Amino acid sequence: QGQLVESGGGLVQAGGSLRLSCAGSGRSFSRDAMGWFRQAPGKEREFVATISAAGGSVTHYADSVKGRFTISRDDDKNTLYLQMDSLKPEDTAIYYCAADFTTAQKMTFKPAHDYWGQGTQVTVSS
């Protein structure tokens, strides 16, 4: 049984930065694509960024975060990261990490994934 636990969320002013972490336990996630998704109040959960398995040579980003967010992974630490820079109030949401035995590209549109974290709140004030 694997688990994912996010951390690093918080309150930040517009233009600021945050780094989210997603620690895996119970099993190695090195063979899984992993990703970040978010859900704002009153909206459906949406794809933010995904990264391929085994080192993460392939990444995908939503247009809304491209150039501001960077996804990365450290398989030795079984941990996924999301560096968020130039944050905007519209980035306010609960951020979830996920893992799935699929490709990073398919993970951007699949409706469900094998593993989910519990989420971490990110609030950006104007």
Radius of gyration: 13 Å
Major sheet size, sense and barrel closure: 7 strands, mixed
Through-space gap between termini: 41 Å
List the uncertain runs: none
- Portion in strands: over 45%
Per DSSP E runs of 2 or more residues, the count of β-strands stands at 11
Total helical elements: 1
Nearest-integer average pLDDT: 96
Helix content: under 10%
Task: Give the helices and strands as they follow along the chain.
Answer: EEEEEEEEEHEE
Helix/strand/pairing category: mainly beta
Shape: globular
Structure, described:
The protein has 126 residues and is mainly β. The protein has 1 helix and 11 strands. Strands 2, 4, 5, 6, 9, 10 and 11 form a 7-stranded mixed sheet that branches. A 4-stranded antiparallel sheet has the order 1-3-8-7, with no helix packed on it. A hairpin with a 4-residue loop joins strand 7 and strand 8. The longest helix is centred in the last third of the chain and has 4 residues, at 104-107. The protein starts with a strand and ends with a strand. The model has no long low-confidence stretch (mean pLDDT 96).
Keywords:
single chain, 126 residues, mainly beta, 4-stranded antiparallel sheet, 11 strands
Overview in brief:
The protein is mainly beta and 126 residues long. The protein has 1 helix and 11 strands. The protein has one helix spanning 104-107, and strands at 3-7, 10-13, 18-25, 33-39, 46-51, 59-61, 69-74, 79-84, 93-100, 115-116, 120-125.
